[in-house]
Write a structure and sequence with these properties.
about 60 residues; alpha+beta; two-stranded parallel ribbon; 2 helices; 2 strands; elongated
Length: about 60
Amino acid sequence: MNIISIIAEYNPFHLGHQYQLQEARRLLGQDSAVMVAMSGSYTQRGEPAITDKWSRTRMALAAG
């Protein structure tokens, strides 16, 4: 099993993020684990996130 870690904001989650997750799975295999460390209510630049972290998490999980 391979494990990949991604640091992201997903603010907002978009097709480029979906592509990144799908390519990680394709390159490492479907049995790989993808771990994403995401920002919370505020972005790395100190701005409020567009949606809450739970919504962004659901979007990322739905994408793969």
